[in-house]
User: Fold this.
Amino acid sequence: MKHSIKKKDQIEYSFIKQIKSLAMDIPSNYEDIVQFIYEDVCEAADPVQWNDIDVIIGFRRWIENKSE
Assistant:
């Protein structure tokens, strides 16, 4: 369980870094987005070698999911 919490924290940090680099405000549904990205990274990315790109892909998938 600790590993999951640590991984989610790392994903959250990466997501914050990405939205700040785009000069975006933190969205009101931030926690929901982070949870979606976390689940996407756990499901689709390499369990050990995932990186910021996987977080960006997860965010893109969240956007695509919302537009359906």
